[in-house]
Design brief:
It is a single chain. The protein folds into two domains: about 110 residues, Winged helix-like DNA-binding domain superfamily/Winged helix DNA-binding domain (Arc Repressor Mutant, subunit A), CATH 1.10.10; about 150 residues, Glucose-6-phosphate isomerase like protein, domain 1 (Rossmann fold), CATH 3.40.50.10490. Helix content is about 55%, strand content about 10%. It has 15 helices and five strands. The longest helix has 19 residues. The protein is globular, with a radius of gyration of 26 Å.
């Protein structure tokens, strides 16, 4: 059903009015979360009236948003999660859970876009990948770079402590790639680095939210997570999910390139430098202490003292 709706929107694009194109654009970018929208919330996100939304859907052959939502929900695997158990039917909890599911669904939907395939291909083939992220979301880029190091060589997180990002920009070599990650409110370095990389012709990947209007002007390699204005501080959950999906997609492409041998070598290096705590074997539990055993041990200690 989703693919059918996407084809319909794209094939009829030229017949839509400007307002209808805004609605169609929102549906294409957020199709995974439409099942959780109301006509009012949909209109508010798009910037049109609820009547315009209803008229557009009737033009597509639906009686209204409810019929479209029923078609999109279908037998979705997340549907049981959407229905909050009776004993947890607190209104705020139910609303929060629905919002979490909607945000994660939107993030996962990005893995089926043409941009996704192109970004995975770029990150697999790049000679060197530099990652930078900023402000509250700095940990996202740091974690992404650390994990990406396991599945491909020459990956690093760039601190920018030199004040000029010299290695990333000035000393960039052919085949290098830059990944920038940031969300509203955007850090000043985020846009400055993106513009500088684009001006120097350095392949650029931007992972951000749908309010970052300037990202697509600088690169085609953009992944935008739909932003929920009422949940601005909750963008990190879907962002972490999206980055995990990206690591997985790159790992699958790298399976034939000695990835597992690389992971094994990394593990052995870590064992040499830091080591790992070893858990006791599951099939060899420590012997149980019996009451008699304790008495015998106490008797032996008394004998030694005497």
């Amino acid at each position: 059903m989703i693919e059918e709706l996407q084809k319909t929107l794209k094939s009829r694009w030229e017949t839509f009015t400007p307002s209808e194109q805004k609605i169609a654009t929102y549906l294409l970018q957020n199709i995974g979360g439409i099942a959780f929208e109301t006509a009012a919330s949909l209109a508010r996100h798009i910037g049109v009236s609820p009547m315009t939304v209803g008229r557009f859907l009737r033009n597509l052959g639906y009686e209204g948003l409810s019929e479209l939502k029923d078609d999109l929900r279908g037998e979705a695997p997340w549907l049981p999660l959407y229905k909050t158990p009776d004993h947890l039917a607190d209104a705020s909890l139910s609303e929060g859970l629905q919002a979490e599911i909607r945000d994660l669904t939107n993030a996962h939907a990005l893995a089926h876009t043409p941009e996704w395939a192109a970004i995975v291909d770029l990150l697999v083939k790049a000679e060197r990948v530099s990652v930078a992220s900023f402000h509250h979301g700095r940990f996202l880029g740091l974690g992404f770079a650390n994990l990406l190091q396991h599945v491909r060589p020459r990956t690093r997180f760039v601190e920018g402590s030199d004040g000029a990002y010299i290695d990333m920009l000035l000393d960039a070599k052919p085949g290098d790639c830059l990944v920038l990650i940031d969300f509203r409110r955007y850090y000043r370095h985020f846009r400055l680095l993106a513009e500088e990389a684009a001006a120097r012709g350095i392949p650029l990947v931007i992972i951000t939210d749908t309010q970052c209007y300037w990202a697509r002007k600088l690169t085609d390699h953009v992944l935008m997570i739909p932003i929920d204005e009422s949940r601005a501080w909750h963008n990190f959950g879907p962002a972490m999910s999206l980055l995990s999906l990206l690591i997985g997609a790159i790992a699958r492409r790298q399976e034939q390139s000695g990835m597992f041998e690389r992971i094994d070598r990394i593990t052995r290096l870590r064992q040499s430098f830091a080591g790992y705590l070893e858990a006791p074997p599951l099939d060899d539990p420590p012997p149980a202490k019996s009451a008699g055993g304790n008495k015998n041990a106490a008797s032996k200690r008394r004998s030694k003292r005497s």
